[in-house]
Amino acid sequence: MARFVALLRGVNVGGRSLKMDALREIVATAGGTDVATYIQSGNVVLSHRMRSSSKLGAHLSAAIEDATGMQVAVIVRTEREWERVIASNPFPDAGGTTLHVVFLADRPPAGTLDPIDLAAFAPEEATLVGRELYLHLPNGMGRAELPKALEKLGPPVTGTARNWNTVLKLQAMLES
């Protein structure tokens, strides 16, 4: 069985509550094994017989909707894809809560970031690598202006963000 990280978008915010024990049960009922969650924001590490991360994401999203009535986007990466996310970090000196990765469901169109003058947001930085948007926000997400500008572009594809601490914790869970 392949190992995966599944990231739920928008749970346990804005009144959309999903307890992690219920999520583990839903994922197990949907064929997941070795299911573990991390914090309350919808991070799941699991094994599954499916091989396609996009098909598994759709499968888990449907299972969550069937069980809870909530429509929740689920972004999935294989263990190998997760390792590439870490290896491809364009900001190796950043970390913790100043580095964020936006995991996108699909590769965004070429030139997605072109309408934004990224230099105008310095010292904040953004780099798109495949299906991941890396955000280096030295003053933290709460004070950052660059994410607000990126939101105004409109969502080219569905995504969900995690800070670097969470990315590394999920990697450790994959390895255990």
Describe the fold and architecture.
The protein has 176 residues and is α+β, with helices and mostly antiparallel strands. Helices cover 31% and strands 26% of the residues. The chain contains five helices and eight strands. It has a four-stranded antiparallel beta sheet with strand order 2-3-1-4, with helices on both faces. A four-stranded antiparallel beta sheet has the order 6-7-5-8. The radius of gyration is 16 Å and the shape is globular. The model has no long low-confidence stretch (mean pLDDT 94).
Helix/strand class: alpha+beta
Number of DSSP helices?
5
| Order of H and E elements | EHEEHEHEEEHEH
Shape assignment: globular
Mean pLDDT comes to 94
Beta-strand proportion: 25-35%
Radius of gyration: 16 Å
Main sheet: strands, sense, barrel: 4 strands, antiparallel
Q: How many E-type strands?
A: 8
The residue ranges in which pLDDT falls below 50 over 5 or more consecutive positions are none
Helical content stands at 25-40%
How is the largest sheet built, in terms of strand order?
2-3-1-4
Distance between the termini: 15 Å
Condensed summary:
With 176 residues, the chain is an alpha+beta fold.
Topology:
Blueprint (H helix, E strand, L loop, with lengths): L1 E7 L11 H10 L3 E6 L4 E6 L4 H16 L5 E5 H9 L11 E6 L20 E5 L2 E5 L9 H7 L6 E5 H12 L1
Helix pairs in contact: 1-2, 3-5
